[in-house]
């Protein structure tokens, strides 16, 4: 990631939002490949992707996302695209994700079937990399967010 580009991006956000804190928030790249990260960043910027899901076990002892937290969405090249704010966080079993959740994730055809197939494969890869196990009852962290600022 280009730290200079990130600092410039955040400085522009702070100029446009004088009450913003000076500390750059966490950056987030959705997906596990540069191509997917870039595609998902575009979906966030257009407003189609308004949610994300991660495995609870992936957090280990790290704090979970919290409502009101800001983050910067970056693409597969590390380029910042927008600032988002988390609007809700819910922990549920993978099998409890519903049609609305899938639609808010904004991926593929936005159906629960697509979401389930894509995320099942993704979470299995992620769990295996961490030496963990994934099944339909694995806990996931479902976050909804809103884009609050785009550069340009």
Overview of this structure, please?
There is one protein chain. The protein has 152 residues and is an alpha+beta fold. The chain has a single domain, classed as Roll (Sulfate adenylyltransferase), CATH 3.10.400.10. The protein is built from four helices and five strands, in the order H-E-H-E-E-E-H-H-E. A five-stranded mixed sheet has the order 1-3-4-5-2. Helix 3 crosses helix 4 (112-129). The protein is globular and about 45 Å long. The protein starts with a helix and ends with a strand.
Which helices and strands occur, and which strands form pairs?
Blueprint: H1 3-16, E1 27-28, H2 34-46, E2 51-55, E3 70-74, E4 80-93, H3 99-105, H4 112-129, E5 139-150
Parallel strand pairs: 1-3
Antiparallel strand pairs: 2-5, 3-4, 4-5
Helix pairs in contact: 3-4
Short summary of the structure?
The protein has 152 residues and is α+β, with helices and mostly antiparallel strands. The chain has helices spanning 3-16, 34-46, 99-105, 112-129, and strands at 27-28, 51-55, 70-74, 80-93, 139-150.
């Amino acid at each position: 990631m280009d730290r200079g580009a990130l600092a410039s991006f955040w400085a522009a956000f702070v100029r446009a939002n004088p009450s913003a804190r000076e500390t750059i928030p966490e950056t987030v790249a959705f997906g596990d490949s540069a191509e997917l990260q870039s595609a998902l960043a575009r979906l966030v910027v257009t407003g189609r992707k308004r949610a994300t899901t991660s495995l609870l076990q992936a957090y280990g002892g790290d704090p979970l996302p919290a409502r009101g937290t800001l983050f910067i969405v970056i693409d597969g090249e590390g380029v910042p695209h927008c600032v988002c704010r988390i609007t809700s966080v819910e922990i549920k079993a993978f099998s409890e994700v519903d049609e609305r959740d899938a639609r808010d994730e904004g991926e593929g055809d936005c159906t629960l079937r697509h979401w389930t197939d894509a995320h099942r494969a993704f979470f299995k890869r992620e769990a295996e990399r961490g030496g963990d196990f994934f099944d339909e009852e694995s806990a996931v962290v479902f976050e909804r967010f809103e884009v609050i600022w785009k550069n340009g």
